[in-house]
Amino acid sequence: MTEPAMPWPGQVNLRGLRPLVAAEIRWGLHCHAQRPRHSQWHLGWLQTLVNICRRCDAGSLADLGPGIPEHVALVAKEMVTDLRLVYFTPAGSREAGFLETGHSGIRFPDRIGHFDLTGVSQRWLRDLLWDYLADMLRSAGCPRTAGPLDNVRRACLELSAFLLAEAPGGGDGPAALQAGHAHRFIADQRHRERHGMASLAITRSDGTPSAVTANTRGIVFGQARRLLRYALDTGRAEQLGLDRAFITAMPAAGGASGGKPRRRPFPDDVARALADQANLAQLAAIHDAGDQGLRDIWETIILTGRRVSEVIRLRLECTGRYGGLPMLWHDQTKVGNYDAAIRIPERLYQLIEERQRKTAARFAAQHGRWPAPEQRTAMALFPSERRNPGATGSLSYPWFLTRFRSWVDQLDLGHYVPHQARHTLATSLLRHGATLAHIRRYLGHVSDRMAEHYVHLSHSDLEDVLNHVWVAGPGSASPGDLLSGGTPLTREQAQALAVDLSRRSTPAEGGFCTFQPVVEGRACPWNLDCHNCGNFVLSGADLLYWRRKREQWYSIAERAPDDATADYLHKVFAPTAKAIDGLENALAGLGLLDDALALDLRRPQDYFQRVWNLGFRASDLAGTAEDQQAQPDDDPDEAGDELEATA
User: Fold this and answer.
1) Residues with Cβ < 8 Å from 16, sequence gap 6 or more?
2) Which pLDDT tens digit goes with each residue over 302-317?
3) Region 30-39: what's the mean pLDDT?
């Protein structure tokens, strides 16, 4: 029975195996076939695994030890992972010290679903961690990725290692923990962060200790605080006898450092380098020898400002022309906005078309046929080469980030990340007159507050943006109607107001004049009576000016000698008040009201009224200069006094 089975096409010979091992292999094959995205198992690998089990007389796949071929070990490991869901109940996995996300019906992308918790030495802390993670998976706000679970486990590993070394009894008795232990743990983490020391329990993939940074320290503090507060809220702290002072002593994630800084846009020189054609060719040739689409991904991020994951996970059929305009369809999974479309440049449309052709050609080379229409709908634009026979799975974010960092390091530009391209595009949109509402809609944000994180502007930038928000002036037929930055006017309204925003304008007192003869330099036929003119528009940059005007009129009306006079003044000012209210409503709808109120754009005339009102005739100035040349010995101060008197 120890003789290896003869290979047979399309079959795996399980004869001679113990019944349990044979059943485990059958179950593993069944689970592997049910996955929409799985690796390719060659029959030779499976038969080798069977022969090893037969030769060792193994009672279970878990009995296999080291020394088997690597590819066969990977097959056995995946089978054992599927068997855990059969052999262990949730309570059994808690007792054994691990968590299976499959018990909650969840499988995170690119993860096997097994979380080992045995590194937490204290049994009470490990059980508390298991309960917290299980409740997180069962909740309506279950995370989209495994990152939050990894962060909580990291915090528990750090706290467990510290308690094992410093707490009485290795921290096994929660009742013995006091606020002082939490304070010492906090001080130890900050000391390691300040001096760049190694972590207590976390190691890198190569086995070397991981250094404590401001980011990892913030994760440990924040997640440890959440876990302990969970114990307090659920009553577990009282059951364990855990001191409340120990729980409340744990600080928030930000701590004294103020939290994580915001990303900045790319500086001009860095932006030019990252978009240079020669550098992009280097990115494709050196860092993507297999032409999986690294350069295409980066160029799409630059031109659209999409999140990296949104570009990587594009489907093969993600573009189309609608009304002659090229559009890109994508999923904004972070904000729950699926199948969203944005307009893209023609150059990007052609680039994606070429990538679609390459992806379809690779599928044909692998399967001997072109993908069917229903298969093209499910295929990824940038398919991964691992565990992806149907080309439905996309490349991973670590795959892109690793190669992007190597490219940036090779260019010697400094530390920059791909997400900064999103900030750069948002700032560029703002500089060209887009409002926060437009930026939020284009970038796929859920609120203006989120969009503000991507907007980096100076005093002059804000002034330019506010100048693009126009409402009809008090002399128009409809004072206060929004003329730009929102819903466009109808044709009848545009004709009634005689305002065409595509034409040029010229600044006027408190707004802009759109009457073209005046814009071109001719004299105003209405003697510069701007505020009663239908061609006069108010801008967001003039809000404070008009608010002062309103206060001035109200003050005059209050001091009127009788009610009739006051009513008359209010009636005269009513169109202006309506225009001001319309301007405030327009700015509030665009999310710019607070910015307009905080930006005081008084003109220099308001501060230097005497200087701007002084004027001199050229003949008088010429005569004064001749008098000074004729009397060179005069006192300069006296000559200045005489000049001022003449003025």
Assistant:
1) 1, 2, 5, 54
2) 999 899 999 999 999 9
3) 82
Query: Which residues are within 8 A (CB) of 327 and not within 5 positions of it... i.e. 6 or more apart?
Result: 319, 320, 321, 341, 342, 343, 344
**Do residues 210 and 199 lie in contact, with contact meaning Cβ atoms separated by under 8 Å?**
yes
Query: From CA 555, how far away is CA 75, in angstroms rounded?
Result: 85
Show the DSSP H helices in 114-146 as ranges: 123-138
Q: What does the pLDDT average to over 341-359?
A: 93
Residue among 278, 371, 356 at smallest CA distance from 315: 356
Nearest to 537 by CA among 473, 584, 464: 473
Q: Tell me how far apart the terminal alpha carbons of the chain are, to the nearest angstrom.
A: 121
Q: Tell me the Ramachandran region of residue 30: left when phi exceeds 0, alpha when psi lies from -120 to 50, beta otherwise.
A: alpha
Please write the tens of the pLDDT for every residue from 285-296.
999 999 999 999
Cβ-based neighbour number of residue 135 at 10 Å? 13
Element (H, E) at 375: helix 373-378
Q: CB atoms < 10 A from the CB of 580, how many?
A: 23
* Overall residue count recorded for the chain in this entry: 647
| 279 exposure class (CB count in 10 Å sphere: 0-12, 13-18, 19+) | middle
Query: Taking 60 as the threshold, does the pLDDT of residue 635 lie above it?
Result: no
**Hey, which bits of 128-250 come out as E strands?**
198-203, 209-211
pLDDT cut 70: percent of the chain above it: 79
- Do 479 and 582 contact (CB within 8 A), yes or no? yes
Rounded CA-CA distance 455/14 in Å is 63
Rg (the chain; Cα; Å)? 36
Task: Please name the amino acid found at residue 579.
Answer: A
Q: Would you state the pLDDT for residue 362?
A: 93
Residue type, 76: A
Containing 341, the helix (H) or strand (E) segment is strand 337-343
Helices 123-138 & 147-166, crossing angle to 10 degrees? 170
Helix (H) / strand (E) element for 189: namely helix 179-195
Q: Locate tokens 């001080």: which residue?
A: 187
- CA 297/CA 135 separation, integer angstroms: 37
Neighbouring-strand partners of residue 113? none
Long-range contacts of 479-484 (CB under 8 A, 24+ apart): 479/575, 479/576, 479/578, 479/579, 479/582, 480/578, 480/579, 480/580, 480/581, 480/582, 480/583, 480/585, 480/586, 481/582, 482/582, 482/586, 482/589, 483/537
Q: How confident is the model at residue 386 (pLDDT cuts 50, 70, 90)?
A: confident
Distance of alpha carbon 614 from alpha carbon 152, whole angstroms: 71
Q: CA 319 to CA 470: how far, in whole Å?
A: 35
Return the structure tokens found at 503.
Answer: 């034409």
Mean pLDDT of the chain: 80
Place of tokens 């399980």: 14
Under the banding of pLDDT at 50, 70 and 90, the label for residue 223 is: very high
- What pLDDT is recorded for position 621? 52
CB 100 within 8 A of CB 130: no
Residue 349 amino acid letter: Y
Bigger pLDDT: 217 vs 387:
217
The pair of structure tokens assigned to 299 is 């160029």
Q: Answer left, alpha or beta for residue 220, where phi above 0 means left and psi between -120 and 50 means alpha.
A: alpha
Residue 626 confidence (pLDDT) above 90: no
- Residue 83 tokens read as 């068997």
Sign of CA dihedral 604, 609, 613, 615: negative
